[in-house]
Specification:
single chain, mainly alpha, 3 helices, 8% strand, rod-shaped
Length: 156
Amino acid sequence: MSESALISEVIQLTASTESVEVTVIVPVVTPTITQIPPMPTMTATEPLLVTQEGYPRVSGWFLTLLALFGSAGLAFWAVSKIVSVRWGLRWAFCMLIGGLLGYNYLALGFPGAADWIAGNAGASGLLVLTFTGMIIGGIAAWAWRHWFSAQESRAN
């Protein structure tokens, strides 16, 4: 048994005593509609550290804590080698508090921060806010030390 022909023509033979007539009937080809599978649509992936609205996720919070404690530890080490262990602790705590205030400015939804993060800053904006707070905390520790040493020199 053979399979159906893919391309074929129908031939009709009409035989009579006087003549033979051959008629070729051309089949009408109807196009078959083949379904093209739809292309998978690209879905926007959520950022890992911040939400689409600009607020930090747990992973952003964890990264911020690593940056905070790492920077505060580095500040403690540097200031304790240069000045004293007491001032190293003070600088580290001032920087830690400043960094937490910078992070909380975003996390608590104060004006402008979430829009800036969601607009174009992304996860790096989260760290910029945190490090800006840490720099302000470091400046506060420097001012504290400067004020404290000025009082000591007046007392002597």
